[in-house]
Amino acid sequence: MLALTSVWTTILLAAAVALGPLAIDMYLPALPAMGDALSADTGQVQLTLSIYMAGFALAQLICGPLADRFGRKPIMIGGFLLFAVASVVCALATNIETLILCRFLQALGGSAGPVLGRAAVRDIYSPRDAAKIMAILASIMALAPAIAPTLGGFMVVGLGWPSIFLALGGYALVMAIVVAVGIPEPMRPENRQSLRIASLWKNYQAIASDISFLGYTLTNSLTFAGLFAFLSGSSFVLIDFLGVAPQHFGLFFACIVAGYIVGNLTAIRLGSRLVPDQILVRGLVVSVAGGGLMAALAAAQAYSVWAVILPQTLFMIGVGMVLPQTMAGALANFPRMAGSASALFGFTQMVVAATVGALVGYFHDGTSLVMAAVIATCAIAALASYLLLVQRHPAPGFEPA
């Protein structure tokens, strides 16, 4: 077993947390091909993405309290095994309805990685240190999404879209084994919570009524929704509208991930001389600039790949700075029920993201305008949430300088 504060433990937690995003990023290049193979329209295919997010959100409300009672490891291992089985069934689907159902089941298992990875970091580190560790974890984790769309694009062309789900199932099975034998249980025995309905309701009520938690969670969710708006619309904008080949989609997507990594590394570097609030507000301003630029170019009908990729890369630099600070700030007040707090945080994040993704699919007009406008709106709303809630009710140790 590795030491909890070992860099290898952080790397393994990042690999575990990456499973949820991988289930999105890896199959993005396959969305148009899946629609053709299953005789489904754009809205139905995008529903496989939104239903995954909805299931991901709901499952977190269950696995968070279970992890507060039984520990992080057993729930994470069980989730990975469920994800592996659901992935195989996804690969065997012969109609869009079966695929949508199996994506929901896949999400139920995949939610265990992110929600319990965040909780484990809070178990191990203090709130201020947790912000730095989450930025490091996010940087490592971003390597997988950087590779996944490119790999997914080549797999679609060479092996067909079902191969993507088989690969995801294999990854989940490997991670279940790695977590079982490589990572110690991070939760202290004295922090175990009851599973009685009254106790669960009391815990969630205490978390949801914390203004600081609400502020950080809403700021994070709106920022993440801007990212999800791109995930939901990018394959149709880049492949169908702008003519990018599916096998080249991942190369452009890597630019987006590179922006996110730059934001994470900037947050880590600034963390030694700035308080988290200063990093957060700078990241929000960068995201607003990127989203606003993309919307302005789309409104001016400047339709090109780089009119989408470069502004989104700038937006993602801001996202990389914002997400670690807001994650750590949201969990700062709940060391004894970090699993439940992380679950409610993740639930809110996914509900907002799924709603935004569905809107992008519903209003898609065949160009980049709708996607760009939604991304800009999310960035502005996140900044407003920070100014109205976070700045007035900061978490302990996260006060504005």
UniProtKB/TrEMBL annotation:
Q: Which InterPro entries match?
A: Efflux_drug-R_Bcr/CmlA, MFS, MFS_dom, MFS_trans_sf
The UniProt transmembrane annotation reads: 42-63, 75-94, 100-121, 133-157, 163-183, 222-243, 249-267, 279-299, 305-323, 344-363, 369-389
**PROSITE patterns reported in the protein's UniProt record:** MFS
Tell me the SUPFAM superfamilies matching this sequence. Answer: MFS general substrate transporter
Q: Taking every annotated instance into account, which residue ranges of this chain make up the domain Major facilitator superfamily (MFS) profile?
A: 9-393
Q: Which UniProt keywords apply?
A: Cell inner membrane, Cell membrane, Membrane, Transmembrane, Transmembrane helix, Transport
Q: What is its main location?
A: membrane
UniProt membrane topology term: Multi-pass membrane protein
Per UniProt, subcellular location reads as: Cell inner membrane; Cell membrane
Please give the family membership noted in the entry: Belongs to the major facilitator superfamily. Bcr/CmlA family.
- The protein, known as: Bcr/CflA family efflux transporter
**What organism does this protein naturally occur in?**
Marinobacter iranensis
